[in-house]
Amino acid sequence: MIQEHRQRLVAILAGDAAGYSRLMAVDERATVAALDSARSVIRRHVETHQGRVIDTAGDSVLAVFEAATGAVEAALAMQRDIEASSATVAEDRRMRFRIGVHLGDVLEKADGSIYGDGVNVAARLQGLAEPGGIAVSDLVHSAVRGHVAAVFVDQGEQTVKNILNPVRWYHAIAADPVPPYRRTAEHLNALPSIAILPFRTPIADPEQVILADGLRMDIQWALGKIAGLMVIASGTMNTYRNKDVTPAQVAAELRVRYLLEGFVQKSGDRARVTASLIDGSSGQVMWTEHYDRVLDDSLGVQDEITERVVTALDVKLLSGEHARVWRKTLRSPKAREYYYRGLHELMKGQKEANAAARENFEQVARLAPESFLGPTLVAFAHWWDAFRGWTTPPARSLELAVQWAERALAMEDVDGQAHFVMAHIHLLRREHDKALEVAEQAVTIRPSCANANPLLGNILYYCGRPGDAADRMRQAMRLTPVHGSWFEVVLAAGCKEIRRWDEATAAAKEALRLKSDDIDARLVLIEVCRATGNEGSARELAQEVARLRPDFSVSKWAETQPYRDPAVLERIVASLRAAGLAS
Are 374 and 366 in contact (CB under 8 A)? Predict the structure, then answer.
């Protein structure tokens, strides 16, 4: 009988104990004990990061993961814990593993074993790693850069045995000793951080306010593309509009190092913009500049200010990133006017305002067909209509969002916003791989985006990576200190799936503080209560759900939940029904 094989793309982790024969010759009993301990650590981290151990022959290990981020984060955690477990052992007696990680195609047999060049490359990378080190291929580096707490040192190309082409590889070095699912917001504070206050105007004239908000959002979105810079979300900063607060107060409340203030005054066809960058800890003004511009020129004040901010912060940009940061300025004065008006309406977060924003962005697309801005923001407005249930039927809004997003994605200087619209649509359609791929592209382009980061967290959760989801939501909350309850719900759900009950409970209760009638937060709490033996509280929460939403049905709710793994949803549904919720 011919055995069937399945070909698929996976992340492969290969490891072996360095100097194992020498260690056995010195002390067999201690070496076997150390190997058993290391294997236990390895298996735990493989499972935590949604991987699967394939083989542990001799002193080696072979594992596969659905995503490269999981494989690299598992490798980093393994090396950290194996090293910590031998801290009291003499240096020359320590058990250390070499680990190689590659992303490639494998043939998987029915019994779970795997074969192919992908496995061979991972094994060769393992041989290149130092004892206690991690070697990753160029494909892995490209997939995880910016998504894991590691520094990658380029080692160039290496010719390796039985592999046709040279392999480009990197040393992966841990940049953060805390595992991803245990990170709190404080671990993100090492990044340079900035908050942009609402730009002021001399009078409450709508024309001047629209221009001021438009310039601020332009700068916000440009800075959001810079890797290694944390930019507090504009929605959070809107809470400071017209408030009598000092920069030092804002910096302390948001835990940011820098603040950008602006003053915009418009007179006829001219505008004066004053921008000041302030060190939040000292209150010292780092620089102030004035820009006088005729509004029908195309000099791009927002790009100038952004570039000055980057220079003043001394942010080290990755190779080629400058080209991604400075977008092409809208050269049509009328298109710019519609663009700013659209942004002004969009930030209101209301049904009628969203419709008005969409109409303005459609005019931008008509007047500036060479720019991605119009199609991107039309797509966003349609998606927001569907997401909030502002249009009937929502499916039509999703169709229009797809059409406009695809139009934006085809353009040369697309900035990542159309990506997160498409990612969410892919998730709703249960196209999990596409959703994850596009969401990760969005965050790669916009590392500090207040929309792309929580969206990626949500998609990671439904794709079966709850630990990564919790990590991403903590980062999103740091970027958006004033956030909706759904941020906390996704964090709670992620922590629940990795059995971190206290953290899940705290996040769900915070969601209820933010939104007292939040049903999803209660559903997570029901699962936690049942998992920890608190059946009484679970039933009380189920009664609250029924009181808040008398028509609630577990079956109907389940239809809206795009889990990749049906077994996860089945377990959740069974738990909710057992608590007394209506089927």
Answer: yes
